[in-house]
Amino acid sequence: MIPLEYRHVTKYQRRGRPPQGERALTGAERQARYRQREAEGQAAPAAPVRLPRPPTRPQRWRAAVAELVALQAEYAAWLDALPEALRDGATGQALQAIVDLDLDELAAIEPPRGFGRD
């Protein structure tokens, strides 16, 4: 039996940025570079911009109801513009069903604010 040669195959990766020169900077050298950058006006990157908060559930509810009311008005205008001969067809019946919906009850509902704020 031939003896196997031991090889170490794992390469360790260093953490952080590799040194720019032959050795890593000392704390004093790093601080001197930082102060030089500050003096030249090359400040560190600014904090990331915060994205706006998404709308709350009550806001989303009101927006959805307002969209439904606006759509119902558009469908009512479409139904009014539809020729009399087409009102008995599938399109006319679907438009009439949408116009006949009572969205006032939905508009009157005030959703709960939650977390004891009701």
Can you characterise this structure?
With 118 residues, this protein is mainly alpha-helical. It has a domain at 57-108. The chain is 47% helix and 0% strand. The relative contact order is 0.08.
Count of β-strands: 0
Secondary-structure content class:
mainly alpha
Q: What's the alpha carbon Rg, rounded to whole Å?
A: 34 Å
Share of β-strand residues: under 5%
SSE order = HHHH
Q: N-to-C terminal Cα separation, in Å? A: 82 Å
Overall shape: elongated
- Helix content class: 40-55%
Biggest beta sheet summary: none
Low-confidence spans? none
Oligomer: single chain
Average per-residue pLDDT, rounded, comes to: 85
Number of helices: 4
Q: Summary?
A:
The protein has 4 helices and no strands. With 118 residues, it is mainly α.
SSE layout:
Layout: H1 27-40, H2 57-81, H3 90-100, H4 104-108
Helix pairs in contact: 2-3
Features:
118 residues; elongated; mainly alpha
